[in-house]
Design a protein that fits this description.
Length: 206
């Protein structure tokens, strides 16, 4: 964490406020007109366990964005965008949309990336009005959800939703736990993906 951000956090604490709340952090940044970069805020959130929030690290987000570049997409969406760190590295399209379910997170994202089209919604329930060339997301994981009488990991449901909103010939770039490639619960979905789509690459991160 930079010295500038450390000093800013200390000032918030001296006011008797909790900088480990997203709403407090954003409110103080806006009120004080402090010049805190997006990278500094991302780094603070990534290293602050008290916030209990996870976002895609800068290096991985940039790597995912570069993979997306290969497919020359025009319209791009992140259906679990959080702080939209991956979309922030996309410089090859202006048609960018992010969907986030947490109102505090989306408020901070709007401040960090005011030019981004952001939607406050549950992507799994949201009725999409259009389809996209590229879905690029770090999907949530670690929770099982029952759908149509079947128990599935939440990341599997996000994959299904992402594939539904792709244009013909569209691309999905996503970050997943490697358990998706192995567990029995996702066996049918893996078969459907291979049967109905083209799997271009699987990259295992250290």
């Amino acid at each position: 964490m930079s010295d500038k951000l450390l000093t800013f956090i200390d000032l918030i604490k001296k006011k008797g406020k909790d900088p480990n709340r997203i709403s407090v952090l954003l409110g103080e940044i806006i009120e004080s007109k402090a010049v805190i970069s997006r990278k500094e805020i991302i780094d603070f959130i990534l290293t602050n366990k008290r916030l209990g929030y996870h976002t895609t690290p800068n290096d991985i987000a940039e790597f995912m964005a570069e993979i997306g570049r290969i497919f020359d997409p025009r319209s791009i969406i992140d259906i679990s965008c959080g702080l939209a760190n991956t979309l922030a590295f996309v410089d090859y399209s202006e048609d960018l949309t992010g969907i986030e379910i947490d109102s505090e997170i989306i408020s901070l994202t709007k401040y960090l990336l005011p030019e981004l089209n952001l939607i406050l919604a549950d992507s799994l329930k949201y009725e999409f009005a259009r389809k996209y060339d590229l879905v690029i997301s770090n999907f949530p994981y670690g929770i099982d959800i029952r759908e149509s009488g079947q128990r599935l990991p939440i990341e599997a449901l996000f994959i299904k939703k992402a594939l539904e909103i792709l244009k013909p010939g569209g691309t999905l770039v996503c970050l997943l736990p490697d358990t998706f490639l192995k567990i029995k619960l996702c066996e049918r979905l893996r078969e459907e993906i291979l049967l109905n789509n083209s799997l271009e690459m699987v990259i295992q991160l250290p």
